[in-house]
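Backbone shape codes:
***
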Amino acid sequence: MTDLEQQLHAIRAEAETAIAGAADLPALEQLKGRYLGQLGGLMANLGKLPKEQKPIIGKLANEVKNALTAAVAGKRDELEAKAEQSGPAIDTTLPGRHHEIGHQHPLTQIFERTVDIFRRMGFAVEDGPEIEDEWHCFDALNTPANHPARDIQDTLYVDVPPHEKYGRYLLRTHTSPVQIRTMLRQKPPIRIIAPGRVFRRDNPDATHSPTFHQIEGLYVDKNVTVADLKGTVEFFFKQLLDPETKVRFRPHFFPYTEPSFEIDLSTPTFRARGKEWIEIAGCGMVDPNVFKAVGYPDDEYTGWAFGFGIERLAMIQYGITDIRLFTENDVRFLGQF
């Protein structure tokens, strides 16, 4: 008996013993691959044998291969039958697992409702960069260089070389620069809202955050009046909060509007909590100096602008008392909305 014949008999004996002892189907597949691979390796030497030995060794190799294939098939049937008798690996009588379905963040809900209301009133949505320059954020909005809002205690400036024409770069403190960019890009009539994230150097507490969201509005055309402003604002809050909402304006000062107003609201919800009025936003007629900065002709157009805080609206809508809850991502809080 040649060495090759002895190796073939040894592979068959070893493989049949191992296959018979396979514990499961994955182990059986590993054994099949191992021993058929060894068999193939031996058969690669068949061409080197003397001519008279090739038929003998070839016949023996086929017998070994057929024997291993039959042993694997028989063991597979045995393991599959055993698995059927023992039942499924998963207990199908156990109750299923409930998977929570996600939903929109409360700020996103208020944002989308707000945008939807203004779209129905004919407002377009405009966007702008969060990293702004001093001219678009302050100068064009009639805010002088010595105004407290431009101080480093209030505004987050970016440590890069300033723009040759527009001054230092900063994280925008409001979305009003979007109004400037829109007026520079097109002529009236303009009816837009500008939602987005803004930044201020505030210490986080229950009512302050260094980053929050605003939505500002701008309407510019001929013969636009305060009556248009009050009617628009009042309609918006009645749609968002409650049909019985009342709105009042109080005189105030903003550099970019003249006259300027604070907006107060009264709703059944506030009255139920013991408050008749609550301050909600600022607004006013666009200052002529703003029109001059964007190149609009003197006395040809009038317009108004307003600004709301999205977090402020959400806190009022849902009775939330701490602005930090919006960014802490506690699912116990978010799951309520």
The chain has a mean pLDDT of 88. The CA atoms of residues 175 and 268 lie 31 Å apart. Residues 54-86 form the longest helix (33 residues).
